[in-house]
Amino acid sequence: MLALSSVSAAYGSFQALFSVSLEIKRGEAVGVIGPNGAGKTTLMRVISGLIAAHEGTMTLEGRAITGLPAHQVVEQGIAHVPENRRLFPALSVEENLRIGAFIPSARARFSERLDWVYQLFPRLKERRAQLAGTMSGGEQQMCAIARALMSKPKVLLMDEPSAGLAPLVVAQVFELVRKIRAEGLTVLIVEQNVQQVLEVVDRAYLLEVGAIRLAGSAAELKQNSVIREAYMGL
Amino acid sequence: MSGSRLVAAIVLLAVLSAIPAILPPYFLHLVIQILIWSFIYTAWALMGRFGFVSFGHGAFLGVGAYVPALLWNFYGLTPWLGIPLSIIAAVLLAAVVGYPCFRRRVVGHYFALVTLALSQVVLLSLVAARDVTGGSLGFTQKAVGHSWYALQFPEKGYFYAIAVLLWLAGLAIWRWIDRGIGREALEAISEDEDAAASIGIDVMRAKMRVTIISAGLTALGGAIYGQYVMYLNPETVAGIAVSLQIVFAAIAGGVYSLLGPSVGALLTLSLTEGLRVWFGTNFIGAANTIYGILLVLCIIFMPQGIVGALQRVTLPRRAPAKANATETPQSVTRRPSSAAQ
């Protein structure tokens, strides 16, 4: 479905990704785990076109998406839930969702998409008129996911959905991820919360200092001694 | 259009067409000035209301005023061609400055500084090219009396009609941008460029578009102003002073509402004129001081502008946001742009 082959990226002279290759199959949920500064967010931003890769190729369903600007990547079917949610705080929940359906194909079926998203997250329907910035962190994350889903993506990129949330809320957010998976979406999720993310993904990659160190099924990685010691504190 | 709006429109039209017949020339002159500047302030606010604060509109105004005047004096080219050329020149200037700014993510204060420099560059160029432009002494178009070809009318009625049409056109363009999805995209961009890009908004294109429209309209305003007053001075149509005048008046009136910039023009121009007449030659500087103080008070106490403040009082607020008082207490204020029209 989504494949990256030897992708490198840099901020000026600082290289953040070194020849990263990964693949996600249709309907799969894949995690990318790793410490702060490993390049996880950079990876997400490269896939969604917010940063240009200076080497390597990326394909979605076999078509090249390398070098496309962000707004065209969305049209190709990749939606990005950015780190820290990045809602439009002064717009209402429904206005955020309306803007999420900005691309022409989604705008044409706005009400259909809206119904679907509200059915998936009934909480948002209750709060449709509330300003997005006044909701709780968990609800904002829900709204950010819903906004991304409005464009009817094939692949959903989620950047640290649990960041800055209380433990109880984190559990709820991963519940949302399960729900989205059940809808048949392909999900790539970047997380520091290794223990919990390995509960919801099929496979995961370990990213350290800009390069993939380990890859395997969630079950394998949960047993891996490196990961247990460095990331789960076991 | 509902009945009451139709009546309002008819009354407005009647008042507008009666004005030149009733008003003495001095006041008619003032009304024409207010209308032309309303148009210019509206053009600025087209982008200013999205947080793209340009201190460079003096540059576009200067280009708009000088290009047709120079072409007329030196080549005898009719303003009917000179004005479109001046608009093209301003649009090119905006594109040349805007493109790298938007590409390199020059936003906020940095964008303001770049544009500030731009208006000063145009001012200094006009002054430096004194053999052609007359420098700081200013520039006067060759007068030919009443002429459609030269777009010169000694009778104020003609320019009054032109100014009214110009002003209405500016409001129509504002509405046109509002109605399309353009406004939503720009609002999203002004809140968070990355988030906007990540949901499929072409940030670059949206910003370029509104900047070019704003610059082109400002040049048109400058050109009509030049044709009307028949005297151009670099200090009054280009440079930082006039750029600031545009920014202050538009913000004082209210950039988030359709009529805000026009109210800004009405108040600031009547105030300067009123104070000037009242003080005459006594207490030199007092008029400017009072004007400055009032402007400061306005901006401190009515950050949404005068029209914004009025709407806040008179319009019912939207469904009040119930703050979910648990995790993330954030203060969020809604800009009244979409609520209040």
Q: What report would you give on this structure?
A:
Chain A is α/β, with parallel strands linked by helices and 234 residues long. Chain A has two domains: 1-77 and 155-162 and 184-234, 3-Layer(aba) Sandwich (Rossmann fold), CATH 3.40.50; 79-152, no CATH class. In chain A, 39% of the residues lie in helices and 26% in strands. Chain A has eleven helices and ten strands. Chain A has helices spanning 40-47, 70-76, 93-100, 104-107, 110-120, 122-126, 137-149, 167-182, 194-200, 218-223, 225-231, and strands at 2-11, 14-24, 29-33, 55-60, 63-64, 78-81, 155-159, 186-191, 203-208, 211-217. A six-stranded mixed sheet of chain A has the order 6-7-8-3-9-10, with helices on both faces. A four-stranded antiparallel sheet of chain A has the order 2-1-4-5, with helices on one face. In chain A, β4 (55-60) and β5 (63-64) form a beta hairpin. In chain A, α3 packs parallel to α7. Chain A starts with a strand and ends with a helix. The model of chain A has no long low-confidence stretch (mean pLDDT 92). Chain B has 341 residues and is mostly helical. Chain B has a domain at 25-239. Chain B contains 15 helices and no strands. Chain B starts with a helix and ends in a 27-residue tail after the last helix. The relative contact order of chain B is 0.15. At the A-B interface, α2, α3 and α7 of A face α8 and α9 of B.
